[in-house]
Amino acid sequence: MEWTDEGIVLGVRRHGESSAIVELLTRSHGRHLGLVRGGSGSRMRPLLQPGNTVSAVWRARLDEHLGYYALEGVRLRAATMFGSSHAVYGVTHLGSLVRLLPERDPHEDIYEMLESILDDFDDVATAGVQLVKFELAMLTELGFGLDLSSCAASGAMNDLIYVSPKSGAAVSRQAGEPWRDRLLRLPPFLRESDDGTNGWSGQDIEDGFRLTGLFLLRNVLEPRGQGHSDARDGFIAAVIRPRARAVAE
After folding, report:
1. Is residue 27 included in any domain, yes or no?
2. Which of 7, 85, 90, 156 has its CA 20 to 30 A from that of 233?
3. Whole-angstrom Cα distance, residue 136 to residue 32?
4. Quick one: pLDDT band at residue 241, thresholds 50, 70, 90?
5. Quick check: is 161 in a domain?
6. Which of 34, 49, 76 is the last residue of a domain?
7. Bridge partners of 172?
8. DSSP one-letter string for 59-106
9. Where does the DNA replication/recombination mediator RecO N-terminal domain start and stop, copy by copy (predicted)?
């Protein structure tokens, strides 16, 4: 068995004296592990950093075997990203999200979105928005997508500013006003009518993570006996801090 693909490094763990088991999210073969000979050595360390994109050749005698990877660098972005605390937390959290997907099951849209996010992930001004959108996409990919296109109560497609915590559907300002304290806020960057020209506040980012976090926890994590990671909390704090500082100044 042999295939060639591009993949994003999710994680690495030492195996034996000098080898490493490398976990990739590949474009066409999904989340896939393989053994890299010499992978724990200093020569391979810059390549095998989470967030890097590599060209991978995977070989095994049988498809169900762990197999071996031969890897070459394509985009080694980890060195620039990891100078920022939000990027360190964020890449760790992105890896935990991707691990919710079944192993060896292709998810090309998620791969493309992850690649796009990582290309600009060192920009703290946009990283928070992009990760909220990624969590939203993961909910859809796992079968728990939210309906943010029209109001669940009236069918209206404009002025959608709330989300029902029960149904995961959008609610308009007029229909939701009597129950506003029971509804989740739909941040501007998740509304189709918002182009981002007015910018987004730290509160908008918090509202976005509160929205996706509730549905991830209830529908995906808790049924698996899991909860939100410390990396997620650290990322949220790191991307909101500069915005709070700017407001204070």
Report:
1. yes
2. 7
3. 23
4. confident
5. no
6. 76
7. 160
8. E-SSTTS--EEEEEEEE--HHHHTTSHHHHHHHHHHHHHHTTSPBT--
9. 1-69
Indicate whether 72 and 89 sit together in one domain. Answer: no
In the block, tokens 């998810």 appear at 107
Residue 105 in any domain: the answer is yes
CATH of the domain at 28: 2.40.50.140
Counted domains in the chain: 2
Look up tokens 């030492």; give the residue. 14
The C-alpha atoms of residue 88 and residue 99 are separated, in whole angstroms, by 17
pLDDT for residue 192 = 72
Cα angle: 60, vertex 65, 71; to 5 degrees: 50
Instruction: Tell me the H-state helices in the chain.
Output: 78-81, 85-98, 108-119, 124-141, 173-176, 202-216, 230-248
Per residue in 175-217, pLDDT tens?
A: 999 999 999 999 999 987 655 555 788 999 999 999 999 999 9
* Stronger pLDDT, 153 or 224, i.e. the higher one: 224
How far is CA 202 from each of CA 13, 102, 109, 157, rounded to the nearest angstrom? 35, 33, 28, 26
Q: Locate tokens 């609610």: which residue?
A: 171
| Amino acid (1-letter code) at residue 170 | A
Nearest CA to 113 out of 86, 83, 141, 144 is that of 141
137 and 21 in a common domain: no
Non-local (6+) Cβ contacts of 119 within 8 A are 75, 77
| Nearest CA among 172, 173, 206 for reference residue 187 | 206
Residues 210, 134 share a domain: yes
User: Is the pLDDT higher at 159 or at 247?
Assistant: 159
- Domain range for 28 is 2-76
Could you read off the pLDDT of 44-58 as tens digits, one per residue? 999 999 999 999 999
- For residue 91, give the nearest of 235, 226, 237, 240 by alpha carbon: 235
